Amino acid sequence: MERAALRELAVDTLYDLGGSLLYGLGVYTFALKGAFAPGGVSGVALILNHFTHWPVGLVSMVLNLPILLVSRRALNRVFLLKSLRTILISTVMLDLVFPQFGVYEGSRLLAAVFTGVCLGAGLAIIYLRGSSTGGTDFLIYAVKRRLPHMSFGQITLVTDGVVILAGYFAFGDIDAVLYGMLSVMASTFVMDRIVYGAGGGKLALIITAKGGQVARAISDAVNRGATLFPATGSYSGRPLEMVLCACGKAEVARVRTAAHAVDPGAMVMICETNEVFGEGFLPPELPDAPAGPKG
Fold this sequence. Notes:
alpha+beta; 61% helix; elongated
């Protein structure tokens, strides 16, 4: 195996370990005794554990099989193999590692919040390397490929609804549903902040009469390219140019400074971007082939 492939395997495994550690912390430590289902296959496994005391990780692995059969055509081979490795690591964490430690049996509210935070962070770390913990994650990736405008968190929120409602019948109170919803909302927020924070950035829109000079100044300041569009001032009727530049969050101040150094009267608008694909940002193949950013 080539050195680059070994390095990528090592990085993938480290991400799997870190993500599975947080995933196991959320499911086993906080959710197991919280009497609510946080959604997904892990939520179903927790409901079954409530009645049978079967191992959560093993049940999750068994439940993955029919879901894998249903969604396998929407998954590429690399993603599938990575996910199988992640499933194995997360199962070991859930059934062998975390049972050696205690579980949280305090406030259900805190349990729900920290379940969501840990699950969201763990899943996001795993997603960033183009893998998953299986289960509804396979369905989520299949939906993501068909509906790329939806975020991972939004799709997760929809797929988790049925499992959360099942918590009412399993645990016998409406609070189980409310705490399950809270955990999923916390997970969604954390997941999107990590996944899209990593791939996000800023978009600078600059209206100026010196577009070419501004673009060169930005290139000198942050080594970012820009795109020029012809524009016309609606009040003055003057010919202007709009400079569009995608940049990192840490670069936006230098972009603004460079623009105003060339044209102090330039109108500079800074917008948030959830994802930026292309050179210097996320690889273009990410939405279509969940192989993750190459490390």
